[in-house]
Design brief:
The complex is a heterodimer. In chain A, strands 2, 5, 6, 10, 11 and 12 form a 6-stranded mixed β-sheet that branches. In chain A, strands 3-9-8-7 form a 4-stranded antiparallel β-sheet, with no helix packed on it. In chain A, strands 1-4 form a two-stranded antiparallel ribbon. Chain A has strands spanning about 5, 10-15, 20, 25, 35-40, 45-50, 55-60, 60-65, 75, 85-95, 100, 105-110. Chain A contains no helices and 12 strands. In chain A, a hairpin with a 5-residue loop joins strand 5 and strand 6. In chain A, about 0% of the residues lie in helices and about 50% in strands. Chain A is mainly beta. By secondary structure, chain B is mainly beta. In chain B, strand 5 (about 40-50) and strand 6 (about 55) form a beta hairpin. The chains are: A mainly beta, B mainly beta. The interface of A and B includes residues 34, 49, 89, 97 and 102 of A.
């Protein structure tokens, strides 16, 4: 069935470290892919998206590339900051049913 | 735009009481979603509306839960009677429709049922 598998957290990094959060999906067709971020006590916010194969979404130093051949959409950032501490959700848009299918979320903790 | 507005932000109630959560979507957005987030189950889609009509309520956990969207600018999620296992953060999200596919989330309502 349709699903998203994310790297389990928590991920704990020092400031300025390199970040990768893995995400793979199972879906029919080629859905739009998303990363949402949830800061403590807040709702989810769109971080970036990609709508077709080989597209790269980017925002706030974060990047993710839509890899059709590996059905993946890994999130990366070259140098994390303490303010990046949050929960990150990978998702894809199941257009036929007008739904977002979310992964379980990965908690990132960045310490000084 | 003010974004998606939810109220109340926090609700504490006793088991057996009725709880009503409210959502005001972004103006012009014609799809509305209710989610529940818990540590154990993560983020779950409960129900969604398109043009005020419920399209998929397969995520509603049981008959104690009901949702309405009487007009394009207001939706409610009601739990009656509430139980301690309903304690969670409930999010409302909206989507503009058409060719867009980005959902915008409200700040959530943290519900605690004692």
């Amino acid at each position: 069935g349709n699903s998203v598998t994310q790297m389990e957290g928590p991920v704990t990094l020092s400031e300025e470290a390199f970040l990768t959060i893995n995400c793979t999906y199972t879906a029919t067709g080629y859905p739009s892919l998303f990363w949402y971020v949830q800061y403590p006590g807040e709702g989810l916010q769109l971080l970036l998206k990609a709508t077709k194969a080989d597209d790269k979404g980017s925002n706030k130093g974060f990047e993710a590339t839509y890899r059709k051949e590996t059905t993946s959409f890994h999130l990366e950032k070259g140098s994390v900051q303490v303010s990046d501490s949050a929960v990150y959700f990978c998702a894809f848009y199941f257009g036929g049913y007008n739904k977002l299918i979310f992964g379980a979320g990965t908690r990132l903790a960045v310490h000084p | 735009d003010a974004g998606v507005i939810q109220s109340p932000r926090h609700e504490v109630t006793e088991m057996g009481q009725e709880v009503t959560l409210r959502c005001k979507p972004i103006s012009g957005h014609n799809s509305l979603f209710w989610y529940r987030q818990t540590m154990m189950r993560g983020l779950e889609l409960l129900i969604y509306f398109n043009n005020n009509v419920p399209i998929d309520d397969s995520g509603m956990p049981e008959d104690r839960f009901s949702a309405k969207m009487p007009n394009a600018s207001f939706s409610t999620l009601k739990i009656q009677p509430s139980e301690p296992r309903d304690s969670a953060v409930y999010f409302c999200a909206t989507l503009a429709g058409g060719s867009t596919d980005t959902q915008y989330f409200g700040p959530g309502t943290r519900l605690t049922v004692l």
